Amino acid sequence: MNSSGVSPDKAGGSISAAGNKTEEVAIGNLILSVLDPAEREGLWPFLELCPLVWHAVLHEPGEPIEFAYFPNSGVVSLVVSVKDGKSVEVGVVGREGFFGAALAGGLDKSPHRALVQVPGDAYRIRATVLRELLPAAPKLRVLMTRYALIQSMQLAQTAACNRLHALDQRMARWVLMTHDRTNAQTLNMTHERLASLLGTDRPSVSDAASAFQKSGIIAYKRGSLKILSRRKLKEAACECYGIMQEYYSQLGLE
Question: Percent of the chain at pLDDT above 90?
Fold first, then answer.
């Protein structure tokens, strides 16, 4: 039993087939990195380092949340699907936050599919253990609650964006948000996958990508999207990108 009063044995151990953890692994997740040493020490025995494999499903909608994921790198998409098979991305999670926002409010289910969009790695912790640790981790509790509220604003803004703004504006916003979380100039993304995330069809995405390429905004080849001008991307994006950036600046993690 550690200082938090929770036995590591109760969590099923901190190392599993899904991942491992060593002291040498840097904490890239901004929430975990700003915790007080005492709080981080209380969490450490229960955290697993696990790979975020491209297109891996971390959670299915309506199922109990088994783990909270705190990405060090990579991007997780929050996706809503309907009965006819269509889907659209309504939110993204990177190193600025965590998947499992419902846990911050004492809930144990999420209506979203959590899908790895950009590979990386994350620390994860069992939801049942996290609930027991939170009373003894006030800073983590505040940061998780703050992030959950800001994520709800992102979801609402994205819903409005998907309904009201043109595809090229939404595509620019998506590329910017993904770039913010990866710092990668090149993103591996097919037109088909991007169409699914943006809730449209492949030909429409191909037309928008072609226009961006002709304008010197991106270069696209064989499922690889390279950002040539972030300034032009910001000019092409709708106001939703700036609004969402303002939300996340209130996290106070940078």
Answer: 76
Token pair for 95: 């190193």
For 9, 38, 41, 146, 148, the CA distances from 66, given in Å and listed in that order, are 17, 25, 22, 21, 17
- Nearest Cα neighbor of 173 from 248, 120, 221, 236 is 236
pTM across the whole model: 0.87
Rounded Cα gap, residues 53 and 118, in angstroms:
8
Tokens 């790979």 -> residue: 51
Q: For 141-178, what is each residue's pLDDT tens digit?
A: 999 999 999 999 999 999 999 999 999 999 999 999 99
Whole-angstrom distance, CA of residue 91 vs CA of residue 78: 5
Residue type, 130: L
Residue burial 19-53, b: 16+ Cβ < 10 Å; e: rest: bebeeeeebbbbbbebbeeebbebbbbbbbbbebe
Instruction: Take residue 230 and report the two structure tokens written for it.
Output: 């972030």
Is residue 76 a contact partner of residue 114, using CB atoms and an 8 Å limit? yes
Q: Are 41 and 124 in contact (CB under 8 A)?
A: no
For the chain, list the domains and their CATH numbers: 8-137 (2.60.120.10), 166-237 (1.10.10.10)
118 - beta bridge partners? 75
- For the stretch 15-20, contacts whose Cβ atoms lie closer than 8 Å and that sit 24 or more positions apart, written own/partner, are 15/48, 16/48, 18/48, 18/50, 18/124, 19/48, 19/49, 19/50, 19/51, 19/121, 19/124, 20/48, 20/49
